[in-house]
Amino acid sequence: AEAQDQLRELRMEVAALRERVRGAAPPAAEFAIGIEEALNREASSLRADGDSMRASLREALGMLAEERRQRQDHAAEGQQRLRELQAWAEERLQRVEGMLRDGVQGASEFRAAVQEARQLGELS
Hints:
The chain has one helix and no strands. The mean pLDDT is 89. Helices cover 98% and strands 0% of the residues. The protein is mainly α.
């Protein structure tokens, strides 16, 4: 009888434990489902962020390429302008040198004429 009472008590404890386990399983399952849904939302959000970042990167790379083309165009224009200025300066320098030679030659001719005039003045 005493063994049967102990057996009955053990059965009641096992039944109570089973109820507690059954009662705990649904919240744990709901928790797991909630976590899975949260992870899925986060993964979707991360995918969208990644897509957005890739689009922004493509746009930034396009802008950088356009800026590089503009800088190269400006550099080419600057080099062309420099060549034009060098040609202009060279032409002006040649003209000034020519005028200087003409001036030196004119001065020499003037001195020769003055010298000749002095000599003629001395003869007269």
